[in-house]
Design brief:
heterodimer; A: mainly alpha; de novo design (two linked rop proteins); two-stranded antiparallel sheet; 6 helices; 69% helix; 5% strand; elongated; B: 2 domains; three-stranded antiparallel beta sheet; 13 strands
């Protein structure tokens, strides 16, 4: 039996909730759609350009909806109750989830910078949340202490 | 000869580990009791020995516990170092991706003078073609507004604001040029394509940058504020900038999110439009000459959208010119479009 420092548990939970709120907004924006057929005059910061691009879908599924599902799952596995669970499947699943999310976030950043030449600030918020969750999750696993030490 | 070397004494030993090292204490056999002396029966002496043994056992347990903690702490430190290395590697990868991404440049099409074939194709669409397409497939129409008349040199004025990189501007320009060519003459039109890095990449189009327009009926100003690579191109005059700030926003066009979007067209103080009237997807994979040719053929999707929108622009211009020139303004295509124009 081992346990994770309480501060990291709560940090991961709060980050997952913040990411979820951002993902909800992006999914709503995607769902409401933009039919203006116009180019915003805002230089490199252009959410619509990113969220309506060809990179906004993966095999026909909107990335915004994938992000929403991803963060719903993250909120569940980052909850203090889930951290209290010692199941190796949950622990390794959690690490795999944030690592996979980080790889996908890097792919989306690449698409923004190299293919679309536009940055979506709300998407960047989600990417940052995933990166921080990756850091916190790894630190939490590395800093696990035997239960009697805590 | 030397004397016999006595055999080394055999020691019993106890190992006690502290936080950083272990000490082994030996107990010489001579000091060990070899039997149970008869005089050890005194109860007081028994208790003292038992207490000492207990104390030694407690020390051993504490030392073992300390060693276990030390080992756990060492493992934890090495795990944290490993995780730190992974995080550092990720940060380096992300930093490289972002830095190179911000510095790289994927150049868009170079703007050149429009070819004669393209110019003649777009500016000499037969009246029969315009009449055949009529109001066509156009669903998104300019908004009617009530504003001070927009004029220049005593003539009704039309103002276009776009950018060469913008795919929606690329689509709309074909209609603007086709319509204006019915009322006057362009010189110095360019041909280019929208940026390869946006939706509807490399949409073929014309450019108003460096062009001029002469007409006895109306005045026209076309601004391309940035080139295909997003570099600044034309600068709006202070008055035009004020006009755009006011009318390229709700309640005149679009929603709060689209205020300032391009293309924006202000027409004579009576109509404004923002965005494209049809999708740039219409021109996917086409060359400039192919677009110009398709505009001549009323059966093509290009004509049903581009020429039809040109009829709407023509109808708005005709309102400003009091129906001049008559052959354009009374044509069935323009009349069909005029019948569908919104009013204030």
């Amino acid at each position: 039996m081992s346990r994770v420092p309480r501060s990291l548990v709560w940090a991961s939970f709060v980050l997952a909730i913040v990411g979820l709120l951002d993902a909800v907004y992006l999914a709503y924006e995607h769902g409401s759609g933009s039919n203006s057929l116009a180019c915003p005059e805002t230089g490199h910061l252009d959410c619509a350009k990113v969220t309506t691009s060809t990179y906004s879908e993966l095999h026909g599924i909107p990335v915004a909806y994938l992000g929403l599902a991803f963060f719903v799952l993250l909120v569940l596995v980052m909850s203090p109750w889930a951290w209290a669970n010692q199941s190796p499947l949950l622990r390794w699943g959690r690490v795999a989830l944030v690592a996979g999310g980080l790889v996908f976030a890097i792919y989306l950043v690449w698409a923004e910078l190299y293919r679309l030449d536009a940055i979506c600030l709300y998407c960047t918020g989600v990417h940052l949340a995933i990166f921080l969750l990756f850091v916190v999750t790894l630190l939490a696993e590395a800093a696990r202490m035997p239960a009697e030490d805590a | 000869m030397g004397g016999e070397v006595p055999a080394p004494e055999k020691f019993l030993s106890y190992t006690t580990c502290g936080s950083t090292s272990c000490i082994t204490e030996g107990v010489p056999p001579k000091r060990r009791p070899t039997g149970t002396p008869a005089n050890l029966s005194a109860p007081g002496s028994n208790a003292a020995a038992s207490a000492k043994a207990e104390e030694r056992r407690a020390k051993r347990v504490a030392a073992a516990e300390e060693a276990r903690r030390e080992l756990a702490a060492r493992q934890r430190r090495s795990r944290l170092l490993g995780v730190g290395a992974i995080i550092l590697a990720v940060v380096v990868v992300v930093a490289i991706v972002v830095a190179v991404g911000l510095l790289h440049s994927d150049k868009g099409a170079k703007t050149t003078a429009a070819s004669d074939e393209v110019i003649s194709g777009v500016t000499s669409i037969p009246a029969a073609t315009f009449d055949k397409v009529g109001a066509g497939n156009i669903k998104t129409l300019p908004s009617a507004i009530t504003a001070d008349p927009l004029t220049a040199d005593g003539k009704p004025r039309m103002l276009y604001v776009g950018a060469e990189y913008c795919p929606y501007c690329a689509a709309e320009r074909w209609s603007v040029v086709a319509a204006l060519a019915r009322f006057g003459t362009f010189a110095g039109l360019g041909q280019t394509a929208s940026t390869p890095k946006d939706v509807f990449p490399n949409t073929p189009t014309l450019s108003f940058h460096g062009s001029s327009y002469t007409s006895q009926y109306i005045s026209f100003s076309g601004y391309e504020i940035e080139d295909t690579n997003g570099k600044p191109l034309d600068t709006l005059t202070s008055d035009d900038n004020t006009l755009v700030q006011k009318y390229n926003a709700p309640p005149y066009v679009g929603t709060g999110d689209t205020a300032g979007s391009i293309p924006f067209i202000a027409m004579f103080g009576s109509y404004v439009s923002q965005g494209a009237s049809y999708s740039p997807d219409l021109f996917k994979g086409m060359t400039h000459a192919e677009v110009a040719n398709a505009m001549q053929d009323p059966t093509t999707d290009v004509a049903k959208n581009v020429d039809a929108m040109a009829n709407f622009f023509s109808a708005i211009i005709c309102k400003a010119t009091d129906g001049q020139p008559g052959d354009v303004c009374t044509s069935s295509g323009v009349q069909a479009a005029a019948a569908k124009l919104p009013t204030t």
